[in-house]
Amino acid sequence: MGLLSDPNRRRALISLLTRLNTPICGMPVEWLMKTMQAKGLEVFTQRFSRTLPFPDENKERYMVRGTNVYGILRAPRAPRTEALVLSAPCSPGDNNNQAVGLLLGLAEYFRNQIYWAKDIIFLVNEHDLIGMQAWLEGYHHTNTTGMDWSPLQGRGGSIQAALSLELSSDIITSLDLVLEGLNGQLPNLDLANLFYAFCQKIGVLCTIQGKLQRNDWDSVSGYSHAVQTMMLMVMKQASGRPWGDHGLFLRYHIEAATIKGVNSFRQYKTDATTIGRLLEGMYRKLNNLLERLHQSYFFYLMPSLSHFVSIGYYMPAFGLLAVILLLRALDLWVQLSTPPQRTEDGVTDIEPVRGTHFKTVADLLSLLTPLVISHLTGVALYMLPIRFQEMAVEHFPVSETEAVVLTAIAVYTAGLALPHNTHRLLSGEGTEQGWRVLKLVAVLYLAVLLGCTALINFSLGFILALTLVPVAAFVTPHVPKVLSAFILVILSPACTLLFSVFFFQELQEMPISFQDGWLLFLSVISQGILDHSLYGSLVYPLITLLVYPCWLLFWNILFWN
Amino acid sequence: MAAPLTLLLLVAVTVRAALFRSSLSELISERVEVVSPLTAWKRVIEGLALLDLGVSPYSGDVFHETPLTIYLFHFLVDYAEVTFMLADVITAVALYMAVKDYNKQVFRKQKFALEADRYPLDCLELIRSPKEMYYIPLKVAMFYLLNPFTILSCVAKSTCGLNNAIIALFILSTIKGNVLLSAIFLSLATYQSIYPLTLCAPALLYLMQRQYIPVNFRRASFWWFIVQYAFMYLGSLFVIICLSFFLLGSWDYLPSVYGFILSVPDLTPNIGLFWYFFAEMFEHFRLFFLCVFQINVFFYTIPLSIKLKEHPVFLIFMQLAVISIFKSYPTVGDISLYMAFLPVWSHLHRFLRNIFLVSCVLLACSALFPVLWHLWIYAGSANSNFYYAITLLFNVAQILLVSDYFYAFLRREHHLTYGLYLKRKDGSEATLVLK
């Protein structure tokens, strides 16, 4: 006995799926409302609208207006304090047509069961992440991103867990589990383990990062496959964008994951009924939860679905990198405290003689000026691209998106050429001490910044640490200038992003040419800026307001003389 | 020196005004590191609203300010931002004038000691010159006004700024030698929060030193002065308390304000040490640990006063630090008050041993507070242990800072008496250890 063993139900589901196979203009709101009501759910809608700061060329939208439709299945015998969410993003065309059909089929089946202790909310959101953000903000009465939405008429208690479906064809060969959410937040590992255990029980093939598990852990190729899978997860987490609709739930402390159906060339195929049974089993498990999933790890990296690397293993690696910076800071402090060569005997104090004081205003100025100018450049990099897109479009033959991205790159490159130092105008005395003080401040600033980033989004913190720490520790005005300048630029945040784009494509076994890679790089920048203004992703402000000024300080130290 | 001070005041007021008008002020006034249940502006508004309705503002356990504060804001609620900026300015100017006077006295005493040949010959490099002491008052004002902690506290409209102003005026009147004003401001400070009571001891020591009364238990003049000061202090405290009674017509402010401070019923996380302990404690032991924690604040007064009886201003600094670290609801505004004093002891820099470690830890912890709060409350990935770990680390760093300055101060005094290059009895080199 399971879902759809009844031939009538099977037929109804297949008719739903074929009806949704036809391309739709926008979302069929009335039809969805009628169907959900016919299945016995309490149906509500929510309208939302948002004007993006500049047109999104990937998804081709600028002024977004849409409606979310959701139906609540009330638990028959339980108080309405907790809820579960099953969502399917609905977009025009046949991008995700099967998921909505499966969702409606499940709704009908769930309606006839008596064991539900939590309300189940079936959500069909339009314009994927934007609609999901509007729904979540309406549900939790917050408004962090400035979107315009109508209040929700119906609610279901606090949401315990959520799953998002993306199915584009009715024949599935494997299911892909997507975990990475906004700002690199991950759901509890229990949710991933639960899904994988269920897939194994039902006999559906489950993958992560689109890669299958291998059994030969000892061989070199097996190990490198696992490393590739893990590096894909690191790249996805570091980008800070939600890789599925579930990514926005995590911010509200709701464990969520996205399940993508993949149709590739494999011998064994499963159909929608098996997927339905799988989801029914998942929801029965989630229904039995007495408390939110919190027992397992929240911070992990997965080389495969049955193995994970916990924070206790990967954080010491980052800690060792941070220690480099702290040791360099200590070394600079000791250098600053010992006075210049004086042949006075009798100075037998054990402690270092008193350290530097800013004897003149010039010393303080030579420290503050680079700091202020770097941060002003960072602020310019954050604010100018969006503010001046109209002016750029007037004067140059580019579209708004290109204007924003090219302005960002232009400001970034211009920051390299600014004159930072005032000490060239003042007397050159004390400059040896001056760059040491600046480097001490910069190194400590970078250490604290990387520590805070690694705590929130480990992958981003680690990648930044890998590229910035070696160069930060070694740069002085006395290293060979041309070579060091070249290395410093290669390891700057923008070039790291460019190399990551190529690396990501390599890992996914879809290597691209340099032209396509450059275009992909530009679109990644525009997506980053959009993610920040639409969902509150922190990667763009972090890089422009904090990491880039810190990097500029090291650039400044290199050209101190 | 009026011009640089005016410039500094202008810069400080501009920064605060700019932040008041920005969108950050809402965000800052909700941070638990900056406001506590005792000092939050939201609660002052709530109390004023209750007062306007004719209900006692202390009903409902929301409002914990003293009646004088609520009446002050009853008239000034429309000018609240100006009031807090003015409080910061008053604190800075009071500290400036106090430190200027104190430096004059220090220099005078040093001159007399030099003329009386009391310093050994090899510690001449420890003698302070007027040139190095010239900019110290300005630096003190700058350390207070431009400290990010003070700016955050002002923008959040935390009444900690008013408390700091009263304590700064107390310090100014003590250093100027005005016994009556010192007693009045101290009683106001004690009335606001109980802990400044411990500042009685350094005030007494300083005023007695200034009036050349020897600090000796057997002398009648010592006891007579104490009786005078106690009379003025207790008298003004009595007047203020009775005034509060007549303002609101009832005694319920006593349990709401002082009962709240002493019995710590609200366990909202903050940067202090109380909340985590009392959240996980069994009810049976609560009173015992409460007494232990509260006595901890007052306990250091007597030993420190005995050790530092010649140096009452340093004792004020240490007492302020002890109060800010160990009080029941500390905020960053309390920390900024004692940190403003650090330039006064800048001549101790050569004897400080842990300054690098302490400043790194304080910086890192200040950056990690909001990160771990976000991870605990919003992301749900961490829990209270992480936040308390940072709190503990922050407080340990502060304690290390204070004890380091204590060591450096005592070491310099030792050198001034026994010479800079210490030799043991057989002529070999010796070092000083703080036991």
User: How many beta-strand runs of chain A?
Assistant: 13
Assembly status = heterodimer
* Average of pLDDT of chain B: 91
Count the DSSP helices of chain B: 20
Largest protein interface? A-B, 30 and 22 residues
Share of residues in helices of chain A:
40-55%
The CATH H-level superfamily of the largest domain in chain A is Zn peptidases
User: What summary fits the major beta sheet of chain B?
Assistant: none
Number of domains of chain B: 1
Order of helices and strands of chain A: HHEEEHEHEEEEHEHEEHEEHHHHHHHHHH
| Structural class assignment of chain B | mainly alpha
Domain count of chain A: 2
Pfam families (chain A): Gaa1
Membrane topology (chain A): Multi-pass membrane protein
Subcellular location (chain A): Endoplasmic reticulum membrane
Main location (chain A): endoplasmic reticulum
Write the topology of this structure.
The complex is a heterodimer of chains A (561) and B (435).
Chain A: H1 7-20, H2 29-38, E1 42-56, E2 61-73, E3 82-90, H3 97-111, E4 119-126, H4 128-140, E5 148-149, E6 158-166, E7 171-172, E8 174-178, H5 189-202, E9 206-208, H6 220-239, E10 255-262, E11 270-271, H7 272-287, E12 300-304, E13 307-310, H8 311-337, H9 361-387, H10 389-395, H11 400-415, H12 431-456, H13 458-474, H14 481-490, H15 493-507, H16 514-535, H17 539-558
Parallel strand pairs in A: 3-4, 3-6, 6-10, 8-9
Antiparallel strand pairs in A: 1-2, 1-5, 2-4, 7-11, 8-10, 12-13
Helix pairs in contact in A: 1-3, 3-7, 5-7, 6-13, 8-12, 8-13, 9-11, 9-12, 9-17, 10-11, 11-16, 12-13, 12-17, 15-16
Chain B: H1 2-21, H2 24-28, H3 41-53, H4 67-76, H5 80-115, H6 130-133, H7 136-145, H8 148-155, H9 160-176, H10 179-192, H11 200-210, H12 220-248, H13 253-263, H14 274-279, H15 286-299, H16 301-307, H17 312-326, H18 332-339, H19 355-379, H20 384-418
Helix pairs in contact in B: 1-5, 1-7, 5-7, 5-9, 8-18, 9-10, 10-12, 11-17, 17-18, 17-20, 19-20
